[in-house]
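User: Run a structure prediction on this.
Assistant: Running it now.
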Amino acid sequence: MWESTGPAAQALGALPSLAAAGTLVWAVARPRPALRQRLGRLAHPTTVCATLSLITTATMPQAGFGSAWKLVEVAFLLILLAVITRWSPLRELVPALPLAALAVTVWPLVLVSGESFLESIGIATFWLLPAAGAVAAGAHLRRQEARRRNAVAEARSAQRLQLSRDLHDFVAHDISGIVVQAQAARFVAATDPTQAMLALERIEKAGLSALAAMDRTVEMLNGPEAPAATEPLPGVSQLQSLIDDFTSAGATEAYLELPPVVTDLLSREAGTAAYRIVVEALTNVRRHAPDASRATVAFVPTATTVEIRVTNDRSTRAPARRRASRGGLGLPALTEHAQALGGTLSAGPYGGDGWRLTAVLPAMPRG
C-alpha cells in the first residue's frame, strides 16, 4: 500500500489533476478562431482524466496531501464536465460524461470506508449534485446556442423566401412585359416604325424597373450592414401606373377601380401586399390569358376589410393548372402572405371562360 504522504503518493495523487489542468490549458491556449474547435475535442481527454481519477481512487488511500489533490482534481473535472457538455459532439459524450461523473462521485468513499452503506450512499449522492450541476450548466448553454442557430437559420430562410418573392412578383412581371413588347415591336417594325419606337421605350422602362428590383434584392443579400434601400416598396398609390403600363404593353385593356378611402384603410405592409397581388394577377393574365380583351382590378372596402378582385375574360386555364402543379412561387406565396396578415386569397374560374382572383386584407380602424 502507498504511503499517503510519501513522494510516490503525492505524485500519483497529483497525476489526474495535472492531466485535467493540462487538458484545459491545451484547449484555451490557442488563437481565438481555433478555440471553439479545441473545446469540441475535449471529450476523449476528459475520459482519460476520469479514468486516471478512478484508478487513483481505487489504488491509494486518500488522506493528507493526496486528498488535497483530489479536491483540485474534482474541481477540474467539474469544469471539464460543463465544457464537454456544451461543446462536444453527442456521440463522444456517451463514455465521457458517466466516467467523469462517477470519478467526482466516488472519490470520498475511501475516506468513509467504515461508515454504513446508507451513509456511503448519502455521501455519493451529495457529490453527485455538483456533477449534475456542471452538466446542467453545459446543457443550458448548448440549448441556448442551438436556439440561436435555429433563429439564424429561420431568419435566413425567411430572407431567402422574401427575395424569391420579390424576384417573382416584380422582376418576372417586368420581364414578361419586355417579352410582349419585343414581340409586338418585331411585327410592327417594318410597317410602323413609330409604334416600334414606342415599344422600345416601354421595353426600356420595364428593364429599368426590373433592374431596380434586382438592386433591392442585392441590397438585402448584402446583409444588415448594407445601406438601406432608398426606394420604398410600391403600394396602392402606384397601382394606376401599373395598370397603365400593363395596358400599353399588350392587347388586354386593364381598368382600376380604387376608391380614395382604400389608401387610408390599408397599412403600409398590407398596401405592399395588395400591390404584389395585383402584379401577380396581371402577370398571370399576360402569361395564361393573352387573348383576354379586358382585365378589371377592383378594390371594395368594408368596415373591417378591403377586398381585391382581379377579373379577366377568356382565360386559358390549362396552363395555369400546369404551373400550379410545378409548385410556383406566385399565388401560393401570396396566399401565405395574405394569411399572415390576417386575410385570405383565392382564385378560380369566373363567368364561363373568365378567371377571378379574390383577396381580402384586414383594414385599419377608421379614425
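The domain at 235-367 is CATH 3.30.565.10 (Heat Shock Protein 90).
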